[in-house]
Amino acid sequence: EVQLVEFGGGLVQPGRSLRLSCAASGFIFDDYDIHWVRQGPGKGLEWVSRISWNSATAAYADSVKGRFTISRDNAKKSVYLQMNSLKVEDTALYYCVKDIGRMTTVTWGFGSWGQGTLVTVSS
Amino acid sequence: DIVMTQSPLSLPVTPGEPASISCRSSQSLLYSNGYNYLDWYVQKPGQSPQLLIYLASTRAPGVPDRFSGSGSGTDFTLKISRVEAEDVGVYYCMQAVQFPLGFGGGTKVEI
User: Fold this and answer.
1) Which of these, A25, A93, B36, B65, could form a disulfide with A116 (CB 3.0-4.6 Å)?
2) B53: Cβ–Cβ under 8 A, 6 or more apart, which residues?
3) Burial category of A34 from C-beta neighbours within 10 Å (exposed 0-12, middle 13-18, buried 19 and up)
C-alpha cells in the first residue's frame, strides 16, 4: 500500500523558514515524481512544486519560485520542501503527492496523497 | 501560465440523476504524444483529494464506472451518470501538460 506521510509543519513568523518532509513507502520510490500541493484555509488546491524521479529537474509555482526549494533523498525515500522567506499567504495544508506515471517526462496524475501537514505563517 | 476555469461553481444534484461539470483551459492540453493532460479530482469532506480521471478520459483504479471524462484541446467535461450520496464533495480539474501545473477553482457538488 502506498503511503505518504508529511511532517514538519507548524506556526512560524513571516520571513522565517520551515522545512517540510515527506516519508514514502509501499512503492519503488526511485521511479516516481513527487509533488507538493497546498490548500489554504477554506480555499482550493494550488500546485506548489515537483521533483523528478531522478532529481534531474524541479519545477515551482510562480508564487513560491525563489523562496522554496524541493529535494529528495532516494536512499531515505523522502522528499523535502525548504520554505524560506515565508509569507502570511503561504499558510496552508501542504500535501505530498505521488504521480501515477512511472519515470515519465509529463505528469499523468496524482494517484496518491498524504494527509497533509499544516503550515501557519503569522506574527 | 495556463488558466483553468470550471463551471458551475456549485451544483445541486439529485441521487439517481446525472450530473456534469465543465472545465476549460486557456491553452490546449494536447501533448505531442496525442494525449490530453487533464485530470479530475474529488475532495470529499474532511479527506485528502483523490484522483478520478487522468489523461482526460482514463478512470483511475477503483473509480466507479458512473464517472466518465471527455473532451480535447481546451474543453473538458466530467460526467456522473447516476449521482450517489457518497459523491458529494468538491471536484477539481487540473492541467498537467506544462509547468506550472494548475487547478480549476473547484465545483461543489451537494445533494
Assistant:
1) A93
2) A109, B38, B39, B40, B59, B60, B63, B67, B68, B69, B78
3) buried
Helices (H) and strands (E) in chain A, counts: 0, 11
For each of chain A's 123 residues, which pLDDT tens digit applies?
999 999 999 999 999 999 999 999 999 999 999 999 999 999 999 999 999 999 999 999 999 999 999 999 999 999 999 999 999 999 999 999 999 988 888 899 999 999 999 999 999
Residue A59 sits at the chain B interface (C-beta within 8 Å): yes
**Separation between Cα atoms, residue A70 and residue A75, nearest integer Å:** 16
Question: What's the CA gap between B50 and B60, in Å, rounded?
Answer: 9
Q: Is B23 in the A-facing interface, judged by CB distances under 8 Å?
A: no
Read off the DSSP letter of residue B62: T
The number of C-beta contacts closer than 8 angstroms across A and B is 69
